[in-house]
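Bench notes, bay 3.
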Amino acid sequence: MGILPMTNTGEIRLRRMPRRRGFTHAHRERFMSIPRLGGKAVVLLGWCCLLGPATARAETRFYLASQDDWGGRHGFYLNFEGNELKTLRLALGIADGRAWRFIGPKPGFQSGREHHIVAVIAPGGARLLLDGKTVGESPGRWSPCSGALKVNHRPTWVEVGGDWLCVVSQIVVTLSRDGTERARREFDFRGPASRPAALQLLQPGTPESWPLEAEPSDTLTVDVHLRLLSGDLKDCSPLIDRYGQCRLADWPEKIHNDDDLKENIAEEDKRLAEMPPSTDFDPCGGYLRAGWRGEAKGFFHVVRRGGMWWLITPKGNPCFYLGVSSMPASGWPTTPVTGREFMFEWLPPRDGPLDRAWSANHWGQGDTQYVCFHTCNLIRKYGPDAWAHQSAVRSVRRIRAWGFSGGGKWSASAGLVSIPVLNAGDTPRLGRHPDVFDAKVRETFVKALEKQIAPRRDDPVVLGWSFGNEYDEIVTKGEILDVLSRGAEVPAKRALVDHAIDTIHGGDPAQVAKAWKVEAATREALYASKPAASTEDVEALRRCFADRYYAFIYESVKKIDPNHLFLGNWIVYNWWENEEDWRLIARHCDVIGHDYYSRGYHHPDRDRLVAETDKPMLIGEFSLPPWYGGRRGYGRYDQASAEDEAEAGALYHQWVQDAAKDRHCIGLVWFQYRDQPLTGRGPGRGPKATFGEHYAFGLITVTDQPKWPMVERMRAANLSAAQWRMAATLAH
């Protein structure tokens, strides 16, 4: 994740990778893997593709049903593929453990038509029917994929807009074994399908999932009723009103004029007055009624007491930390408008105070223009001179009233606890990461860290330092192969060769040469070679590189600043090469910084790793964004979304209660303070409804309104969390 330029209000803008909820990111494999085909040729009725989706040009995709491991060649998917309705392909992919095979007719679909699609995947072959007629068959066995079956969704990696829209009304999935129905699930989407087409362009489909375990001898039937409509944005535009809301939707709190914005100030002030900050906590979230205190070191630190890990505030009070990231966010996130200006009813003028809402080139896309609608709303609400200060002051008042301990990653309002995210600055990179085996690179790297840490080295409201974010900091097998392909002068190449000789192959260069299929009798010869290292050796070298990389960062940060905690790099469960990455990172931090998106706190495999490493852990990002049934235009965020604000508050309450009782978890940070734009935060340009994330993650709407049904329930949980943890300590 790279850091973007400062905004005109001094906030740091950050690039974030496309995210999922933290269990799998297999969609990336579609871009990175090409299936290896073996065995006999397969003849298909209908369309036959030998290479599969990874080799096709960028196309709009919509998945009716999928349960697949693309790289492992297991499972199936049923989807639409293409950018034009008249040439749209209906594709059924089936994997047998060795290869994928496909049925893919292009019947010439027309807008407005109702269709009935049935896919039957049986032990001896697969069949695809469209409106009662067989359009393709594929003989051969299938190899089911474990995990959840997903229906009615557009993958997050699809960034190309087509001229069509799929509207699913019903999907029925049936699993039969030995002629007997063993499992059945009916998905009724008639409610969401009744939304105006414009809203469905902003959130295609209604993603749902179902845990399904099939065997190769089972028969799986997917029965779908749907409509295909025109997806022409211009027919539905303008989609967005002058306040950044969906123009074609309505709800009780919707803002209709500038007076509505201003009137909200008094209403909110009244409600906040009824929620005074609790006197049970110190300014950093430390609990004053615990009956015990830790050492007041002037900085956050961790202790273990009664089997539970506790965060101790600078004043020495035990704390279960509850934060909110990305505050006050007065100028971010923004949405790209270049090439789709027609989607917006209004755009701010280029002169006058509302000009502050414009910016450019956030993601390295030249002159792409971006607008921040909530900046316009803040200026209208608080005035052209006071808006930035007033919104920042109000953000602190809100956070205190709602029982949060402070801020989190990326940015925090002045005076609140924060968790700064460090980066490598101008340090040269060897592929994805700096070569920490190179003395000159290490020197540059340390200077970059010092420059960022020095201004806040003695700051008590820094909870701890972290470095980088999520998958960006995972050392991959691909980059190890890249290092091994380089010349003998590259320090990392030499270090990895040395590790292979001394640690993997018993000190014998000849054994390494044999294993790597190169002619080399000495170390120097191996340094200069371009080996074909085995999968096992590449993994061992990957762990060697990663261990040294994480150790260097940890040791450097602690040498520069021995007082503050170091929280690693926000690892995401299962978004890695393998779970050894968790163990590697855990060795080189004081607290495991971990991002996790799910409707529930617990997951057995994640819990197992947390218990195994037995270190304190802080969740730096989680969220339960309401999607309002698709009726306000926000996206549905995989399996972490809530139906509405009330459900989001209830789920948060349970999350906090479960986390507070976990002896390893010392706190949670909600992502994020404000909602994302309906049309996405980018990157992108051109006539497409959304670019990037477009979720209602925030505590605050684009019109600067608190989500009262949600934050009231959050407040109750926040004020109870320390007591829950105290009770769990006694029970333990």
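Next record in the batch:
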Amino acid sequence: MIRFIFFLFLFFSLNLQAMEIRLEVGQWKFKERYGLFKISEKIVQKCEQPISNVGIVAFKDCPYVVLVEDEEIFVQGVLPDQEVRLKIRIEKNYDELFYGIGTQFTHLNLNGRRFEFLSQEQGNGRGEQPISFLQRIVRPGLQGNETTTYASSPIVYSSKLESWVFHTYSYGTADFTHKKFNEFSFLTDRLKISKQTGQSFKELIEKTTEHTGRMRALPAWIQEGAIVGLMGGKEKVQDRISKIKEAGTPLAGIWLQDWVGQRQTQIGPRLIWDWQREDSLYPDLNFDETPVLGYFNPFLSPLPEGEDRDSMFEEAKEKDYLVKIHGKPHGTDNGGFDGFLVDLFNKEAREWLKQIIKQRVQENNFKGWMADFAEAMPFDADVEAKKNEQHHRYIEEWVKLNREVVEELGADELTFFNRASHLKVPGYSTLNWLGDQMSTWGNKDGMHSSLIGLLSGGLSGNTLNHSDIGGYVSFCMRPFVCIKRSEEILIRWMEMNAFGLVFRTHLGLKPSIAAQVDSSEATLKAFSKWASVFRDLKEYKAHFLNLASNKGIPVVRPLFLEFPEDKKTWSIDSQFMLGDALMMAPMLKSKKKRRVYLPKGKWFSVFSDKVWFSNGEFFDVYAPLGKPAVFVTDKFPKNLLQRIRSY
């Protein structure tokens, strides 16, 4: 029973007068399946006496002491077999709005909802019916919900121009449902909290991202056109690339996931997670000097039957390089085969994997690669990292490893894109991508959700981010549901991403039932047009890309970042600003007309000659396929406007 007998008066910038601290003691268990986590808890004691504006407090009915020292909170008296959950209540005003906590796919405005600080597989459907219902039957646990995310981050912004950064890797929750306060909880006995204020939201973001680190500037070649995701071997890829080029499409690169070979599974073709080129598919990766991007992740898997090559999995197993639980290698079900994580907390294992990736990048002349996964790391593995922290620390270690590959090869033109993220990951990342959305329209797990992910993630440090054009998940479970990527949704996604940072395609989970960029003359023509628009915007975006790297201000922005005095903009999540002079309102339903909000001022329609004068109001805008609702202000370069209109 440790109790302090001295008192230390504090009045720090954390503003404890507007904050309360509470404790819960018990045990928490995390059960992983498919990279998603089911959490159970057993609370043995609650210390509900609120603590505020003090330095040291001993609870009346609990044998614990809380010390608040500068920006840090410490809990004393917790026994070795106990865990503690710190609960922080921060006062709020009735009209305050909240944003952040990482990449959220359904809710830009956080008010009235509960969230987890937990980066994990986002799931399929995320509450969209009947998809989630059927997913629960076929692969229970993989359906996710409307708050699951690959990229949580303990950062919160307020419309009152305040932000809080919770410096912790532990699991936590955020509760915005109370009228007078928000409550944040973390499984830790030590917590640092940084509070920032700003004169504008942009200044607030700049101050906040000092704590996360900022993403490195994108290499210029990425802005030169489309990055086309293809598979099937060199001959097939070359034929399709020739067809795409003949349509006049500017290409920035070719992304080849299956350079390592394919395995057939119950959910479609998957990759062989053994980081060696499949020579029978790709005798070489030379495509007429077009940049080639590859694929890596921190898993290893046993080779499929009939594969005639040395197994990295067997080597890692023999060298004791795999993550273990209770002394046994821990496998994660990935739809018909298990993946085993390399223990990145083991220095020898980490260096082994890094050197392999470096070698493959060099010998294949990769210009970039997808750095996939990392969010399935357990919370209680046999590794050299603290329980409850190892999960999020592993994500950071994976991204750091990839960044080290870039730095050690000394190539400024190299880039990689990761989906899993957490608090300090942006400082190591070179590019973020939003993971796997379904080829639907919705805001649970579709095209609209990818837009919300761009906006929310950009506020939380992932300022250079993008989504797969057309989404990833297509599947059929007749007679109940059949989701096929249609030509319409593929082209609408092209329209949206043409006004983003990366114009990259994905064949999808089941390419045979998904419309592709070269499926028809219509898709080829559209792909050429929107890749050209994307390329032509590179000079306009250059200034904003520099701001993102130097100040952490996102390039793809919520409307309120440019029009903070307009209260209506604070609730709009179906439109976005590219920089400060272009607004895009993508079509998020199978329609030709949509409601668009135009802040007060004069707006020029990009794909017509119409000029709109707004007092801050909604308009019904006709936007047929090929002519989306895009508007610019007087600040937008007139010569660029004419060039875009010419396509």
